[in-house]
Amino acid sequence: MAILDYLLMNATHPTADTIFNDLYPSIPTLSKTTVYNTLKLLEEQGVIISINIDEKNVRYDGDLSDHAHFKCKGCGCIYDLPLETRENIHVSGVGTLIITECQIYYKGYCAPCYEMIQN
Amino acid sequence: MAILDYLLMNATHPTADTIFNDLYPSIPTLSKTTVYNTLKLLEEQGVIISINIDEKNVRYDGDLSDHAHFKCKGCGCIYDLPLETRENIHVSGVGTLIITECQIYYKGYCAPCYEMIQN
DNA sequence: TTCTAATATTGTAATGATTACATTTTTGAT
DNA sequence: ATCAAAAATGTAATCATTACAATATTAGAA
């Protein structure tokens, strides 16, 4: 499917809207609903991951390797970072990134909910 | 301000809506806009932090100490975790939490945006 | 090839959190 | 008490996402 291809080609952490706009010219029958449906499906299958680093939009990433994300509070750009990044300044291929915050989110199941899943 | 007090008293990572509903009975003149405005202000001042672990709503936390967050994908409950939590099973005061995903988000400024801030 | 049922795709309308903005209220200094 | 600045309020708009019903596509059986 074109949407998965797009995500694997473009490591730009696009939003659903960006994917739609980039794909629409070459697939004029594409609907935004299809983009949302497909992204949800791909995420449920574990083929892609969703990124909530931005308050407004959900972003998607086809890179399943363990890595962290950095968002510039000025321009909104999102970069990949290695997991072992320190809390201080960090250099990457794009220059120096000044890190001011770090958030770590775990997801999974609490004990009672895990029981329920087993059935 | 009552909203800050609420956040310091209740370590429940509430949403703006929850804060409004809990505070409204005792402050009948309270408006939801005020809650949003105040939360934004408190966050800009660095007095509270916002949590984007939930796709739907932004949550707020008055605990500024370094800690991670866990969200149960079943019931949606959010727990605090120590930073050094491993990727595997983890026990807390509430029982065993099964961790299936971990996301690490850094925020700050890229080089060009950091220049711009200096002015 | 034709039919048909299952599946995928589409478009429109609804939802719901958040914000914009204009108005009203409160505050604090004179 | 007065008045301007600041804070709080209410309503309406915004906008990403989803619900849902309708349409189109596919693949396998006849």
Keywords:
homodimer; 119 residues; alpha+beta; Arc Repressor Mutant, subunit A; 2 domains; two-stranded antiparallel ribbon; 4 helices; 6 strands; 29% strand; flat; DNA-binding
What does this structure look like?
2 copies of one chain form a homodimer. Chain A has 119 residues and is of the alpha+beta class. Chain A folds into 2 domains: 64 residues, Orthogonal Bundle (Arc Repressor Mutant, subunit A), CATH 1.10.10; 55 residues, no CATH class. Helices cover 31% and strands 29% of the residues of chain A. The first copy, chain A, has 4 helices and 6 strands; from the N terminus they run H-H-H-E-E-E-E-E-E-H. Chain A has a two-stranded antiparallel sheet. In chain A, strand 5 and strand 6 form a beta hairpin. In chain A, helix 2 packs across helix 3. The longest helix of chain A is centred in the N-terminal third of the chain and has 13 residues. The radius of gyration of chain A is 17 Å and the shape is flat. At the A-B interface, strand 1, strand 3, strand 6 and helix 4 of A face strand 1, strand 3, strand 6 and helix 4 of B. The first copy, chain A, binds a DNA duplex (30 and 30 nucleotides) through helix 3.
